[in-house]
User: Which sequence fits this backbone?
């Protein structure tokens, strides 16, 4: 992985043509309905077509990146760390929420071990890109080295290239990692300058004491490591996670390959935020799947200038929100392809036309 | 239709069992994810199962009711009234937005002529329940007689019974009728006591003058007719529409048959509001598809105590938002059916469990 050239990937990211977007919208505006009345479905269609040059989604694929977090030992999660590998087995067996919702969406799920704390031997269906067996506890020093951060990014970039090679036209991000809301909150605090209080969510089963501890852990992590907000790789290395690095790399890679990428919730958007800070043009390729109930999520979305597609009070991760959002993008394309124009349908136009 | 007994339908509407809802949620709470983390998908699943006793949707069907409005002659729409029948032809041919989105959702579309101003002869695929060739202009007197209002309600109730007989497990409402945002705004104003200013939306292509005219038309309609807010059939008759009556009847009928009903946007929710005022227990059966950009819609939703599933800046009607919402309900059921429990998956539970 020493050969990974981040700058070369960043340089391949081009803005999406505003002319192409406008050309698709002009077509939609001829369809037999009031102008703009399908709202964001029209946005999904015009952006997807402008990015891919296609009007139909051949393959959909969600990459669920898994990693463990040294900071879990600070007691910031209601679940024990052993759940990370247990959920990896569940994903690979097809029995978790992301599997059910991906089947609903007609999407494949690819599970990537970015840094789970156990060895999986040769688990069929698991993509092995383990950087290390979990990050270090960031309250005591950096979560990972800069080289490891680049290795995590490289894995995500590689997944995007594989998706492109496999005729996948729509990619989704997903995560699994006990305690990973803590590094995600630390990332948004580090990049935006917001306080840990402003971006840390209580979560289910966390009481006042637990929330205070989580905020204290993030505060300590930022003080001990002093991540440089102008150096997103430094932020990822100091207070991030391996799966978050994989997601950031996937977002960069999709933008570089010309693939639209559906970014799931809080942890995925932390990855997208790293990517967006590295090259703001990635935003042209991002579809923000949903509004998480995590309070820091809105700040991430504001920073990357994305409006969530769904708001269903979800907070699971795995890529679940992304799977649902994919179905709405597909609906937008279906309308683009199948609705006749006023002329074709013989319908009178309004004075607004 | 003189034999239609509204009270008999109202009497058949039973509250959905809170015990059944709780039993489904208890099952979901054993699934391998943090409690409540699939948010509203869990709500969709528990309500659907409690209503129907099923975990899988056999048939989905959207009824798109069409009707013309005498008030269109007051110049309240950007489109000419001839568009109503033109769109009926487009629906029956399968070429409109609702057809595309219903195909996406795997739902049938049934088009019902409730009161379009032309004769369709024998148009295959059109269900004929024409009450009259358009309502009367409600600025000059009631839009329809009380008997006609009951006839419209009866048609909707009948459609629900047909859906039940056809093993349809999820019904959607839809509308087509040039100028029908005007009666819909009048209905919500009449029932809630809000002013026409508070519930009237400018809409595309309507300028300041057009908005003022629309508000004046609604104000006049309410003054001339004085609909009784405590008598929803009177409200429907005085300032409503035939397709709105059909929708109200469909909502009542679904509740009476024990069928969940997805209520589309502004016009459909006007119908649901009539139904809910007739018997508030219909709310147990309603799924509010989306937040329309029509400003009166939020007031309707507040009154029927429903939170919209989607918010995609749509304002088309036809049932389009409902088709999309159906796919999310289906996703919730998929997760219910396919996600393993902690025990089955061998995953450790959190301290929150």
Assistant:
């Amino acid at each position: 992985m020493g050969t990974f050239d981040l700058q070369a990937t960043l340089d391949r990211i081009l803005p999406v043509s505003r002319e192409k977007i406008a050309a698709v919208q002009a077509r939609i505006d001829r369809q037999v309905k009031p102008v703009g009345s399908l709202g964001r479905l029209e946005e999904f269609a015009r952006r997807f077509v402008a990015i891919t040059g296609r009007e139909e989604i051949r393959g959909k694929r969600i990459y669920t990146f898994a990693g463990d977090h040294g900071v879990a030992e600070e007691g910031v999660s209601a679940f024990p760390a052993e759940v990370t590998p247990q959920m990896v087995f569940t994903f690979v067996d097809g029995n978790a929420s992301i599997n059910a919702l991906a089947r609903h969406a007609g999407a494949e799920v690819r599970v990537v071990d970015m840094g789970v704390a156990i060895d999986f031997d040769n688990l069929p269906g698991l993509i092995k890109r383990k950087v290390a067996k979990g990050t270090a506890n960031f309250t005591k020093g950096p979560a990972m080295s800069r080289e490891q951060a680049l290795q995590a990014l490289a894995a995500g970039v590689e997944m995007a290239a594989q998706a492109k090679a496999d005729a996948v036209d729509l990619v989704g991000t997903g995560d699994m990692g006990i305690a990973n809301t803590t590094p995600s909150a630390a990332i948004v605090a580090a990049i935006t300058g917001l306080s840990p209080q402003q971006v840390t969510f209580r979560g289910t089963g966390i009481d006042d004491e637990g929330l205070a501890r989580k905020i204290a852990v993030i505060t300590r992590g930022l003080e001990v490591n002093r991540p440089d907000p102008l150096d997103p790789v430094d932020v990822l290395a100091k207070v991030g996670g391996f799966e978050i690095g994989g997601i950031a790399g996937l977002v960069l890679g999709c933008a570089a390959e010309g693939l639209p990428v559906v970014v799931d919730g809080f942890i995925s958007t932390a990855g997208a935020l790293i990517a967006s800070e590295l090259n703001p043009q990635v935003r042209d390729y991002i579809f923000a799947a949903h509004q998480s109930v995590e309070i820091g999520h809105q700040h991430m979305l504001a920073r990357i200038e994305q409006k969530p597609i769904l708001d269903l009070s979800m907070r699971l991760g795995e890529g679940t929100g992304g799977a649902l959002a994919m179905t709405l993008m597909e609906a937008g394309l279906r309308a683009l392809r199948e609705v006749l124009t006023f002329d074709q349908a013989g319908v009178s136009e309004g004075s607004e036309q």
In short: DSSP finds 15 helices and six strands in chain B. The two ends of chain B are 55 Å apart (CA to CA). Chain B touches chain A through 67 residues (CB under 8 Å).
